[in-house]
Design a protein that fits this description.
- The chain is mostly helical.
- A 3-stranded antiparallel beta sheet has the order 3-4-7.
- The longest helix has 16 residues.
- It is elongated.
- The model has no long low-confidence stretch (mean pLDDT 94).
- It binds one RNA strand through helix 4, strand 6, helix 5, strand 11 and helix 10.
RNA sequence: GGCCCCUUCGUCUAGUGGUCCAGGACGUCUGGUUCUCAUCCAGAAAAUCGCGGGUUCGACUCCCGCAGGGGUCACCA
């Protein structure tokens, strides 16, 4: 019947963290699922809090995660403009309508006077209600005073797509400010006007707005508008679990995760399953699967804690599922500087070995550096090795010489190397834990590496033998 | 303080009166994959379902209280 139109409506006051992205993601999924539209609207009505450049940053973040909107400030759309500061005339029109119908009035008090009312309420441990101080004969509104909504307090029962049946009494409905004295509308007013004009069908927003919804319902009535479907999302909690994830407590910019080498689809999967599941045992979803399977009914009502370990696991899982070519393309920015001169073909060979141990691309340098550069001899690797430290340098030297001799005539295919290493095991009578560790340390100067034969094969004959000689000289 | 929301393994969760002495996943631990790290596989430990009452033959699931946590009471969104 009606088209599904959802929106993400952030204020440009900073970056987007996981909690904010989740609201956007769910709105996006809902729209895509129904072949509807996902709208980005910037709520820039508070000039004081606005952070320069954050509007672009928000748009970049959404796009980087694949949450492309169909209408928005930078791409326009049938209901442009999508920036509230450019829609002031719209709010004026609706404000006029409220004034004319006697449902809005000028607030005659100074801020000090209102503050005194507030203090008074606080002192008596009562909630502050402006309507208790509603002026009998308010002056005509000339735009220099705040314009307030003349509320019609009543009880409300309504249905929230996530929370279910909700109820409040008349005591929460109040005369809130529609238009500030600087001429800008408040969120409370502007979002209702815009959602109506932009034909938004579902409002998805955080729990912090729950207490205000009765006020919105009251305003919808005064404006003679039908409210959209409302869906209230529980908060994403910080790692300690007792408060809402927030920038102040170190919640990261989602773009930082991408910079550290997390995949957008892993991040999206993680964020989606933070409080949502499809009631099966599936844990990993592609974005098309999320679009197909998402539903508001399966969003949990309790806050979900942000668990970075789970994100790490999920990201590793996505990395392992990449084809070698995809992996190569997507981790291009993460190579160590030493890899600058390496060929694409060589890098791909390295990736083939390193793929299954990458949890995020930020680990690529430490995992791959020795493939590109001879690292300095690190004596600690032997002296702290559980088995090798029991050996005399002479014994180790003898072993390495045998290895070097054998590898001299190898063609350095992984299979030939493996065969030779096995023969060496028999000849020397050493355990793999000893011989392989020794060769690994000599050729990589790293405590861990991919399986030895494959590592040597990728390093190649020249490099491998050179490093063996260097280790021999150091013993 | 008023009002509102929430409450199942450490964490994310399944679960809509019996098939649940509660299932999956992350994490942890153990073992295996002729070496390390990782992967993969197998297995283990891990929730008296916030507490107390009811309703019922039977409750994690329904009702009532309580407690704890969170939100809100801005010329911020």
């Amino acid at each position: 019947m009606t088209t599904v139109r959802t929106r993400f409506a952030p204020s440009p006051t900073g970056y987007l963290h996981v909690g904010g992205i989740r609201t956007a993601l769910f709105a996006f999924l809902l729209a895509r699922q129904a072949n509807g539209q996902f709208v980005l609207r910037l709520e820039d009505t508070d000039k004081k809090r606005e952070v320069a450049g954050s509007d672009q940053h928000l748009m970049d973040s959404l796009k980087a995660l694949g949450l492309q909107y169909d209408e928005g400030p930078d791409i326009g759309g049938p209901f442009a403009p999508y920036r509230q500061s450019e829609r002031l005339d719209h709010y004026q029109g609706w404000a006029k309508k409220l004034i004319d119908s006697g449902r809005a009035y000028a607030d005659p008090y100074t801020s000090a006077e209102v503050e005194a009312f507030r203090e008074q309420a606080k002192a008596t441990k009562k909630p502050f209600l402006f309507r208790n101080h509603r002026p009998e004969n308010p002056p005509a509104w000339d735009g220099s005073q705040p314009l307030r909504f003349k509320s019609d307090p009543k009880a409300y029962d309504w249905q929230d797509a996530v929370m279910g049946k909700l109820h409040t009494g008349p005591e929460v409905v109040d005369d809130f400010i529609l238009v500030k004295s600087d001429g800008y509308p408040t969120y409370n007013f502007a979002h209702i006007v815009d959602d109506a004009e932009m034909e938004i069908s579902h409002i998805i927003r955080g729990q912090e707005f729950l207490a205000s919804i009765p006020n919105y319902l009251n305003l919808y009535e005064a404006l003679e508008l039908t409210p959209p479907i409302m869906a209230t999302m529980p908060h994403v909690l910080g790692p300690s679990g007792n408060k809402k994830l927030s920038k102040r407590d170190g919640a990261k910019d989602v773009l930082d995760y991408l910079r550290e080498g997390y995949l957008p689809e892993a991040l999206v999967n993680f964020i989606a399953t933070l409080g949502w599941n499809d009631a099966t045992e599936q844990e990993i979803f592609t974005i098309p699967e999320l679009i197909e399977k998402f539903s508001l009914e399966h969003v949990g009502r309790g806050g979900a804690r942000f668990d970075e370990q789970r994100l790490l696991w999920m990201n590793g899982s996505f990395i392992r599922n990449l084809s070698l070519d995809e992996l190569f393309e997507r981790c291009a920015q993460f190579w160590p500087p030493e890899a600058a001169d390496a060929s694409d073909d060589y890098k791909k060979q390295v990736l083939g070995l390193v793929q299954e141990r990458l949890k995020y691309f930020g680990e690529l340098p430490e995992l791959s550096r020795f493939f590109f550069i001879d690292l300095p001899i690190n004596a600690d690797l032997i002296s702290s090795h559980k088995q090798l430290k029991k050996y005399e340098p002479q014994q180790l030297k003898l072993l390495l010489e045998k290895v070097a001799n054998s590898l001299e005539s190898s063609d350095f295919t992984a299979s030939d190397l493996q065969e030779r290493l096995n023969v060496l095991l028999e000849e020397t009578g050493e355990k793999p834990a000893v011989l392989f560790s020794l060769v690994r340390i000599a050729t990589t100067q790293a405590p861990a590496s991919p399986s030895l034969a494959e590592t040597l094969s990728v390093l190649g004959k020249v490099v491998s033998l050179r490093r063996l000689q260097a280790q021999l000289a150091a013993l």
